[in-house]
Amino acid sequence: MRQLKIFIEQYPEKTPFDALNYLTGQCNYGGRVTDANDRITIETILLDFFTDRIFSDDYKFSPSGIYYAPKHGPAESYVEYAAQLPQFPMPEVFGFHENAAITKELNETSNLLNAVQQTKQDGGGGGDGN
Q1: Nearest Cα to 48, choosing from 30, 25, 74, 71?
Q2: How many CB atoms lie within 10 A of CB 74?
Q3: CA triplet 89, 91, 94: central angle to 5 degrees?
Q4: Three-state secondary structure readout of the chain
Q5: Could you give the CA distance from residue 68 to residue 81 in angstroms, rounded to a whole number?
Q6: Along the chain (130 residues), what's the average pLDDT of each consecutive run of 10 residues?
Q7: What is the pTM of this model?
Q8: 29-49: buried (b, 16+ CB within 10 Å) or exposed (e) per residue?
Q9: What local confidence, expressed as pLDDT, does residue 77 receive?
Q10: In a 10 Å sphere around its CB, with 0-12 CB exposed, 13-18 middle and 19+ buried, how is residue 25 labelled?
Q11: Cα(130)–Cα(116) distance, rounded to whole angstroms?
């Protein structure tokens, strides 16, 4: 992280978003991603975050406006912003349609019911047949 800070400080007149995208998408995460299409996906997603538009008050990361880059301020202001975010984020934060939440809930319910079913006894039991 220290190296990134030094790198950014070399360009005080403009934030090097292209370089940040490359460092994050290729060097940091890209080193763990082996599929070429996944790398392209990561770089494309990062374009929404590493952009000059982030400095605009009306630029949001999601349609609801809940997710955005907070204004520059003390560390506590970032903690306060993070604390007000939903504990269980809606699919929009991941770029999915709101119907993805329905699919997630159906899958969780199905997994729970399957787990309960597996704990069910198949029969047998005590008694001496009398």
Answers
A1: 25
A2: 8
A3: 95
A4: CHHHHHHHHCCCCCCCHHHHHHHHHHHHCHHHCCCHHHHHHHHHHHCCCCCHHHHCCCCCCCCCCCCCCCCCCCHHHHHHHHHHCCCCCCHHHHCCCCHHHHHHHHHHHHHHHHHHHHHCCCCCCCCCCC
A5: 10
A6: 63 79 76 80 86 90 89 93 90 82 90 91 63
A7: 0.60
A8: ebeeeeeeeeeeebbeebeee
A9: 94
A10: buried
A11: 32
Token reading at 51: 């952009």
Q: How confident is the model over 9-30, as pLDDT tens digits? A: 776 678 888 888 888 887 776 5
Structure tokens at 46: 């990062």
Distance (Å) of CA 82 to CA 48, 57, 88, 89, 101: 19, 17, 13, 12, 21
Query: Whole-angstrom Cα distance, residue 56 to residue 68?
Result: 10
The structure tokens listed for 91 are 């699919």
